[in-house]
Write a structure and sequence with these properties.
A hairpin with a 5-residue loop joins strand 4 and strand 5. This protein has one domain: P-loop containing nucleotide triphosphate hydrolases (Rossmann fold), CATH 3.40.50.300. By secondary structure, it is an alpha/beta fold. The strands form three sheets. The protein has a three-stranded antiparallel β-sheet. Strands 1-2 form a two-stranded parallel ribbon. Strands 3-7 form a two-stranded parallel ribbon. 49% of the residues lie in helices and 12% in strands. Bound molecules: adenosine-5'-diphosphate. Adenosine-5'-diphosphate binds next to helix 2 and helix 3.
Length: 208
């Protein structure tokens, strides 16, 4: 959980590598569909590019298919899902059908200033979706992905006007879920204004 730009994706990738389970990002999956211009991708881009949420039924079906793939049987880190109460309930149902449960919910808290700074400097690889930042995580060669040589681009929804819309949507639709997970005693707090390198010891403690 956490607003856009709080560092969820960056930290989820580090963590997934460390504990060897897949990092499943709703935003990455949607962007892949959009790039491939699948039926879902075409529908999703109408919402994503404007900073709005993609309708629950589309996202839930996409996540259901992904979570039932064999690499997810030993567990996974979800990033950007659930984002509405409907999605949280659908996730609970799906997991209980598969005899699984949500073990931890990490809540990333970051100031608006930090969020805007992170999102406006963010660049992603157009091929493998690796995340960079012009100042904080620069690539070795400007504009080129260190990992796969792909071209680095700015996401359409990281444009200044759209960032404000996404923050608004987060506060209205997603922030209420924090209470949902707090009531289930699953919530752990991550001080997201820190840099990734400082987070590692904190995450280790949280996951115990
Ligand atoms: P961020 O967390 O920085 O906003 P994401 O990559 O998680 O970035 O999401 C980008 C966009 O994809 C969102 O603004 C929204 O349009 C769409 N999206 C991602 N996850 C969901 C979801 N669970 N439900 C609906 N829309 C989603």
């Amino acid at each position: 959980m956490g607003p856009p730009g709080a560092g969820k994706g960056t930290v989820a990738k580090v963590l997934a590598k460390k504990i060897r389970i897949p990092h499943i990002s709703a935003g990455d999956l949607l962007r892949t569909h959009m790039r491939k211009k699948t039926e879902l991708g075409k529908k999703a881009s109408l919402f994503v590019d404007k900073g709005q949420l993609v309708p629950d039924d589309l996202v839930i079906e996409m996540m259901r298919k992904r979570l039932l793939q064999s690499d997810a049987l030993q567990g996974f880190i979800l990033d950007g899902f659930p984002r509405t109460e409907g999605q949280a309930k659908a996730l609970d149902k799906l997991l209980s059908d598969e005899h699984m449960t949500v073990d931890h919910v990490l809540n990333f808290d970051a100031s608006n200033k930090k969020i805007t700074e992170r999102l406006s400097g963010r660049r992603i690889c157009s091929k493998c979706q690796e995340i960079y930042h012009l100042k904080n995580i620069p690539p070795k060669v400007s504009g080129i992905c260190d990992r796969c040589g792909g071209e680095l681009i700015q996401r359409k929804d990281d444009a200044a006007g759209t960032i404000q819309k996404r923050l608004e949507v987060y506060r209205e639709e997603t922030a209420p879920l924090i209470r949902y997970y707090d009531e289930q005693k699953l919530l752990r707090h991550v001080p997201a204004d820190l840099e990734v390198s400082d987070l590692e010891p904190i995450l280790e403690k949280l996951m115990k």
